[in-house]
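Handout, section 4.2: multi-component inputs.
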Amino acid sequence: MKDKLEKEKEAAQPRALPPKQTVTLTINGTERQLELEPWVSLLDMLREQLHLTGTKVGCNHGQCGACTILLDGKRINSCLTLAVMHDGAEITTIEGLAKDGELHPVQQGFIVHDAFQCGYCTPGQICSVVGLVSEGKARTLDDIRDLMSGNICRCGAYNNIVKVVQEELERSKAQ
Amino acid sequence: MKPFTYSRANEERAAVKEIAASKGAKFIAGGTNLLDLMKMNVMQPAHLVDITHLGMKAIEENQAGGLRLGALVTNADTAYHPLVEQRYPLLSHAILAGASAQLRNKATDGGNLLQRTRCDYFYDTQTACNKREPGTGCSAIKGYNRNLAILGTSEYCIATYPSDMAVALAALEAKVNVTGPDGDRVIPMGDFHRLPGDTPHIDTNLQENELITSIDLPAKGFADHYAYVKVRDRASYAFALVSVAAGLELDGDTIKEARVALGGVAQKPWRLPEAEAMLQGQQASKENFGKVAAAYLQGAKGYGDNDFKIELAKRAIVRALLLATEMEGKS
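Output:
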């Protein structure tokens, strides 16, 4: 029992704060230099340091996909990775998809197909669709559903989201 | 998350040296499991050594005529690698049955082997758990245990090891290459994970301060006759209730060699070479597969909510072996 109490006491001791680290990233085409504590996730960095709040905090455990961004072109959960590990990386968030005032075709597709209700999961869904299309692995409807399963939509807009993906796959094939 | 210090290793030996020198330090690569556990305070490393700059990102032919998967290759890059798809489709399918596209883009092959259990009590720091905190007891044995183990359990722990990739690696008889303070060594997949016994807090036989550098696949990939059957509560992005990796080498209807590994039923991928050997020289038939299934589940023990897994695992084995048999001409 004493052992356990001592252990708990030890665990409750505040740890000394380590120095911040300098990280340089290219975010939506702009190079940014930041001073960060090692435990800051990419997600928290985007939202709290850079005020890019388009990327959403959902579960914060990699289960819902609301925080999906593109890291060096690949979709990942920004909540489950440390910003300090990505010095030199290139990041695209929902804010970086539109070009010259024109929405990205996937963003446009979400409007055309009414692929959202509350919109909270939408930035993550859109980044995930962009990642899925560039991966080039989805061939069937089942593939689309499987490869989008890391993005949860509690409003249940799935059918219309799948339509956007189908359309975008067709468009990318035609190019 | 508890504050921690961070450093980036640029060389294998330096990484091993650093982790050995620093109390409570852990390696970090993809981080998809470790950071989650750190957010929950289930794991509280005081220092993280970033190994993502060590190289180990190649997939190349090894001396045995098989493939060597660098420890830092992502799960996605492994599953979609042309040589893996072509020669080890069982591995590709198993990897793609796990996690989500986002996680597979970040999670590494080495890290996948070190995934910790998804037992709810392990994650809940308010409950007793011998794996998280040795000596506190097991809340799962008499608790909610639907997704927990039926084979190789002990009175101290009934956790399962959740990887899909590792189930295929076990069936393929892969080998794990590691390096540590005492040099390099090779751990066969069958010996990599350990059963709980009275020390359930130790998941694997990887020693403290050892680093996984690569995984070797033997030449034989069972690419003509294989199946990965995963039974879960939803069609995608869920851990296995039961999974089966099966590989067959057939001569007509006659089995020359059979491999079967189970996932979701124990703290390690469950393989029984003596039961596989029962199929050697036998007909590939439902009846013979049923005998193997019965042998695999002999001694299985349910804990209430997970009793159903025993029958489910038997049926999944038969189904996987039938699917593997029937592949002829389809691939």
